[in-house]
Amino acid sequence: MNLPNKLTMLRLILVPFYVFFLLMPAVPHHYLWALLLFAAAAYTDHLDGKIARQRNMVTDFGKFADPLADKIMIFAALACFIQLGLTSAVVLIITAAREFAVTSVRLVAADKGKVVAANRWGKLKTVSQMVAVLVILLMQYLLELHTMGLVTIGNAEAVGWWFWLVGEILLWVSVFFTVLSGVIYLRQNFDFIKNAK
Predict the structure, then answer these.
(1) Among 114, 129, 167, 172, which one is most buried in terms of CB atoms within 10 A?
(2) How far is Cα 98 from Cα 184, in angstroms, rounded to an integer?
């Protein structure tokens, strides 16, 4: 297993750790730990692709595993956000529907001996999702610091509402790119859908 693929696997390994901290409010600074671990996982996504291209280490495994790791990472964060009341289940449902549709096309293509890698629209979708998650975690950590008495942010209820609104806007922007990239992906690979048996 080459270095980019190891970084992809590291991203998967980090998922249960940031989920643990995200859902454990009894742990001091739990949002900070979740933020740092998610940021580290997101950075491996940037790093593995960069190394693979620069060192000519692109593999079929990487083309499949890299987007899969991204999906697991984002799904886990969105599921936690739903449990914490930070977003609606609709965000996760639309995102999951897109990913299942695209993955189905990938599987049909693989059955015909073709590996279909992510396109730039898919990468833009992933970046918008990661930015949304990181900003939401940062805002929640600021509220956590206020609750702990370490910072003062004025009217915490009003600030919390604005933070929720900003998070929702960022998540729905990511949903827009999720749907757009899915439509573009399906159109680009329509032959696999049309000829599927």
Answers:
(1) 129
(2) 11
